[in-house]
Structures are given as C-alpha cells and as structure tokens.
Amino acid sequence: xxxxxxxxxxxxxxxxxxxxxxxxxxxxxxxxxxxxxxxxxxxxxxxxxxxxxxxxxxxxxxxxxxxxxxxxxxxxxxxxxxxxxxxxxxxxxxxxxxxxxxxxxxxxxxxxxxxxxxxxxxxxxxxxxxxxxxxxxxxxxxxxxxxxxxxxxxxxxxxxxxxxxxxxxxxxxxxxxxxxxxxxxxxxxxxxxxxxxxxxxxxxxxxxxxxxxxxxxxxxxxxxxxxxxxxxxxxxxxxxxxxxxxxxxxxxxxxxxxxxxxxxxxxxxxxxxxxxxxxxxxxxxxxxxxxxxxxxxxxxxxxxxxxxxxxxxxxxxxxxxxxxxxxxxxxxxxxxxxxxxxxxxxxxxxxxxxxxxxxxxxxxxxxxxxxxxxxxxxxxxxxxxxxxxxxxxxxxxxxxxxxxxxxxxxxxxxxxxxxxxxxxxxxxxxxxxxxxxxxxxxxxxxxxxxxxxxxxxxxxxxxxxxxxxxxxxxxxxxxxxxxxxxxxxxxxxxxxxxxxxxxxxxxxxxxxxxxxxxxxxxxxxxxxxxxxxxxxxxxxxxxxxxxxxxxxxxxxxxxxxxxxxxxxxxxxxxxxxxxxxxxxxxxxxxxxxxxxxxxxxxxxxxxxxxxxxxxxxxxxxxxxxxxxxxxxxxxxxxxxxxxxxxxxxxxxxxxxxxxxxxxxxxxxxxxxxxxxxxxxxxxxxxxxxxxxxxxxxxxxxxxxxxxxxxxxxxxxxxxxxxxxxxxxxxxxxxxxxxxxxxxxxxxxxxxxxxxxxxxxxxxxxxxxxxxxxxxxxxxxxxxxxxxxxxxxxxxxxxxxxxxxxxxxxxxxxxxxxxxxxxxxxxxxxxxxxxxxxxxxxxxxxxxxxxxxxxxxxxxxxxxxxxxxxxxxxxxxxxxxxxxxxxxxxxxxxxxxxxxxxxxxxxxxxxxxxxxxxxxxxxxxxxx
Length: 927
What we know:
The chain is mostly beta strands. The protein has three domains: 2-94, Phage tail protein beta-alpha-beta fold, CATH 3.55.50.30; 117-254, Immunoglobulin-like (Sandwich); 267-926, Beta Barrel (Maltoporin, Chain A). 6% of the residues lie in helices and 52% in strands. The strands form 13 sheets. The protein has a 22-stranded antiparallel beta barrel.
C-alpha cells in the first residue's frame, strides 16, 4: 500500500520528468520572469498569486536539455513554492504539496466521527503505512473571545520528508516601539511545549509537523494566539501591542533558560529599564556602575575611571557602542559612565568565553546597543537631578519603517564645587556633556540600515593653574541583509576618536598645552548561517586601522619659554578572520567552538631603535636606528585564537559549563598611577613592544529553582597572561619618544571563583554576588633593573580578594518600592615607606616591596525609595521619582593613601571621594 500511495503522489513529478527536454538561459531573472519564460518556451500555463513571487531572489543559470521538472526544481529551490502538473497546467502552491490521494484511514472507521484535524495529522504522521503525511487544518478559527485566530504557514513541504518535528524561531517586538520583548512566554499549551524570549526578544521552539496553536503571554504585552502550520523549519517574527491590563502571574516550565542553557561561560545581560531602581551616586542611572555589582567586575576604587574584569587591567576591556569602540567610558572623575541609559537598549557582557567575532582585548567585551526609535509615535524620556539632566526623544521619520532617537546629558556640577567648605576647591570646575543619535531604516523585512553618532566632552580643574579635558567621538554605519530564512549578514563601518588635553597657565613663563590623540577605523563583515537544527554558524572578517599620537607639548602664549615637542605618530593594522559553530551534539550537550586568526602589522612612517638582544633597553645599548616609510611594515604579530565552550544538562534546570579562550591585544595603556586616568598614554605594539596575550579556563555550575524564580551559579576561572607592560621605578612615561626604555613586559596570572544568587520575581527581587579572586603580576630577569619584588609574583594595583555586592528591591505596592545596594571590597594594594636614610647630607625614604600593604577595606550602603506615577493609559507622561541616599553609613572609604614630607617628617595622608551620606532626589518622566 505504501508503494501504491507513493506512486499516486509522485505521478505528476514523474510525468514532468518524462517530458521533452528544454534549453533556456536565465540571466539574473526574477522567479516570476523565469516562470513566464518557461510558460512561453514549454506551452504550459502557470497558475500562481503574484504576491508569492515578491522579493529580491534572482536566478542566473543556463539549462541545456533539461526537463521542466528539473528546471522548476532549481528555480523554486530557495522559495516556499511547490508545483503540481495537471495536463498542460502547472499549479504553484505556497508551503504545501498537492496530493492525488488521501492516506488510508484518513476518515477513520464508520464509528469514528470525532477525530479533529490535529488528531488526524498526528495519526497520519505516525502511520507506518504511508510515505507522505498530508496536513489538513481549518484556516480560520475563533478564540474564546470570538476573535479570529490567524493562521501562518511555516517552511516548505518536501516530498518524502520523514521528520516529525521542525524548528520555529523568531523575534518578538513591541508593535509601537519596535523594541524586543524579553522574558515573554511563548508556548503550545496542548502539547506542553514552551520557552521564553531572551534579552533580544529571540525564541526557538521544536514543534511537531502540522497545526499548532501558538500562544504568547506576558505582563505588559497583549496575549496573542496564532495557528502555526509547520511544514519545515522556519521563522516567525511577532509584534505585540502594549497593554496595561492587570494579569495574573504566568508560570511556565522550560529548559531554554539562557543562564542554564547557553553554552557561553561568564556572560551577563543587564536590563537597562530595571536599573532605575538601584540607588546610585547623585541619582544618576548608570549602566556600567550596575555592572560592577555583578561577580568578577570591579573598579580599582571609588572614582576610578576604568573597570577590572577577572583580574584584568582597565585597558583590556573592549567597550562597544553599536560596534564602535568607546575608549573612555567615564565622566566626572569616573563617578558616572559615558553611556546614556535612556537611549541604551541591550547590554551584553562577556567575561569568560568571548565569542570569536570579538577580538583585540584580553579580559572582556561590553557590547552595548542603542535602541531603535518608535516609528509610529513621537515620544521621549527625561530626568532632572541635582547634578545632571537627561533628555531623549524618539522621532518617527517614516511610519513603520524609519525613526530617529536622540539623547543628551549635561551636568551643572560647578556650583557644588564652588559651595564646598574647602577653600582650595572654590576655583575648581568640573562639567561634562554627551550626545547620541541613532537613525534606523527598514527598507523591507530583508534589508535594514542604521547609523549611530556619539560625542562627549569632559573638562575639569581642581587647581587654579591646570585645566584638563578629554572627548570621545564615534560613528557607526551598519547594513543588514537577510539572504534567506537561514542566512543573514551585516557589513559595518566604524570610526572612533579620543583626545586628551591639558592647559597649564600660571604667573611664570612655563605655560603650555599638551595632550594625546587616538583614532581607529574598522570595517567588518559578519554572517550568520543556520545550517540545520544542530549547527548555527557565525563567520566573517574584519580589519582595523589604529593611529595613535602619543603626545605633544606646545607653548601657550607668546611669553612661554616651553619648547615645542611632538612624539611621532604610531600606526598599526589589525585584521582577523573568524568562524564559530554552535553545535547541538545532543539534547543535553551543546558545544560552541570558534576560531579567530588575527594578524597585526606595525606601520611607518616612524623610526625604530635596534637594541642589543638579551640585555636591558637603554640609550647605551642602541645598535642602530632604522627609518620606515609611510605604511611600510615595521613588524608583524599574530596567531590563532581558540574560543571553545560547552554546556551539559545534568537536569533540565541544572547544567555544567566549561570554556577556554586565548586572545591577543595589540594596544597598551602606559601608566604609573594606581588607577586608570585621562593622563594615561596609549602605545601600539611595534619592534620593541610585543602584544599582550592571555589564556583563560573557566568551569561553572548553573541551577534554576522554583519555576526559574531563583537563579544560582558558581563559576571558577584561571587566567595566565604575558607581555604585560609595567613601569620601572621612577619611570618617565609621558612625552617620552623612547618609552620602551622605561617599561618592562612581564607575566600575570589571575584566578577566582564567582557566586551569584538572583531572585527574578515576587515583591522582593534582586541578587547577591560574591567573588574571591586574585590578580598577580611578575617581572623577573637576570638584570636587577628589570626585577620587581625579587622576581616573585606580587599583587596588581587592583587585586582585591573579597568582593560582596547585594542589590535588592522590595515592591510595597505597584507604585512604591524600596531599594538597597550594599558593597564590600578588600582594600587594594599600596606601597608604603618603611624607613628613611641619609646620604650625602640628604634624607631619602626607603619603600617596601611594591604593593606589599593594603589600604583599609571598602564598604558602603545605599538606600532609595521609588515612586512611580499611576499607570493610566491616557496621560501625557508617566513619571518616576527616586529618593536616594548614597553612603548611608557615612563611611570614610579611602580612595588612595599617599605620603608627604612635612617639617622633616614623612606623613601618611588619605583621600576620599564621599565621606558623608549624599542624599538626592531625581524626577524622571516618560511621554
């Protein structure tokens, strides 16, 4: 019987195959043009709906002595169209096949009159007597609210396909704003299949062939029912209306939770909207400050501008805003981040297994994306605080197609400094502003474009004679193209520019201005290809051009005696190719394996010293000086970078993950300060400076409890680094043309274990994180001048073994909530003077080994009370008040400890940023 049914089903294809042969040339024809040519050539009439053939697919192929069957197979291969021949007519169908006969037993027995469509389909699919599984369904049905249920067909039915389940994936967005909706439940209730969307609104389900009633459910979004008919793998994007209807809680068990199911270790996602409840300094909502409450991410001290991730230096973090590098992510002495929370949409942090598409840094990637503007309705958000104000506007440009979001922040903090009870600060100033704009345009469902521009500027003066300023500027252009349901790509261009400047003026004749400048441009091609249900490939190439002006000094004014000095420009080209595969080996084991190969070339025009090999680099060991022409290759470095991670399900809500990655970094920061500061200088790898390298291993356990209400994780890591730049004692780094004589390249190692407990639902929610970690460096040599601390490992400036963070929010009612933030950290290392001695009549201080002691431990408690406006739908603006107290306990946490000689005695002094409670009130409103 099976053979007989197979005969009837394929009879039309067989008749086509036996027809006469044709020769026809298709030269970039659309599908419709190709069909019309075939209609003329063969004399057959084609029947189809024009809208089925809309799209950009073009066919360029010559057919010689091919049957109509063979030609149509090629023409329709990349479409959802099937065909059926009846006499001289060719009937096209979308998704499904036309069958000549129904399978045996389709109508059941005479007594069986209650079979519904899905039962029939399942019975047919499970039948061992048929070779095909026809799918039948009612196109229109009604829900309990008498609203018609839309039917959507997915994939292309293929003759003889024996698969019973197919993959459905897509993105769920807000219909008004276009923003992705995260943590939304999407499920087929009758078949106990479900999942939730991730931070990008992405979901993926495995559904049986045939009709499935797909439902969505979430607080704040409409509930939608859609009948999805699965013929094969495919995608379905859904847009939902926002709703303020009060809903009961939804509990959905699923094995597709990101924290447990993802293969990547050490990754974090920040919900930008939720951070408004966390009490922070001066009431400013801060994305990167929230990141420091997560395990493994710290700062060297309160007010430090950089971030230290898993024992790495501040310059080892790649901070991206819409694919463009942001060099200095801080404002106002490091107290605020340079990212506008009102325009930021998605923040992903990778501190363990960094995906292969990222490169150029050793420790972490902060991948931040600006959200898209509402394309239907004008809106905005604003905040007014004691120190800063913030405004963002969303402007529709073309309805449902294009929009512009613009955001700006500024501070009016000068009045605070002028009113402090400290005479030395009365003439001080500190201010900043930043502006960001993003335009996005959807030409159609397959082609999208976006452009982002960002500019920020800071200036500050804590003395009467020096004015410091720095600025960030970046631009990013991205074009995305969806080639097919499986294949999509993106081409992006970015340019980043960072400048630092000092203006020094006094009554003497040594006035000057000085600074440095970094500029980089990158072109990147990125592709994603869903090969099948088991393999998801990411591949591409990138190339980045660095241009660094290490420093210059010019006299300021006609009376200045300062001699102009300019350090020659450094230039380098970093290129890479990468490929990664997310390979589903089994239902329990998921592997993410990637390989990145990077190549770096130091370029002229420059002069390079050649030193005697094997001995310290000094002016007396120079053998020769070589001049290189413009863009001439000075030296090349590079190598393979492996990015491997895996996840294994111990239970559906309990997994173990392991990862390894190695990486190269070709740009360095030079500093002899305890924290990163704007006066740090940057240097590229060249003939005398090797690139930094690191290998990291990680292993972790992840567990969800009580329907995913609680998330628990513990992850350990071990990292080894080499060629880390460190300074010699008494080194002169700024405006030094031969800085390689003042630095050492040593080894580093860091290790630790990170614990995180998170409660995601209920009146009380938040997280508790604890990290035990060590960050050590070593500089050893047979020459004493290159040895630090007897060549043994010693703590880095940001080594803080114990780090505890507690972030909690308690919802008293739907409008009122109470928040708390507690932080404890071990005091960072410091070098103390341990004695003094006289030599030739002068007194000198004798210091301890480097970083042998520690400043006092740091702890701080912040509290806030949050008041949201009523949730009425028809109102001009929705408001939010934040009343917070930073450092409630008034803890005088030391920022640094330093030593001065006064009246012939050495005295230790301690500086603090905030030593008293800081109350603030911030008003936010969204319209």
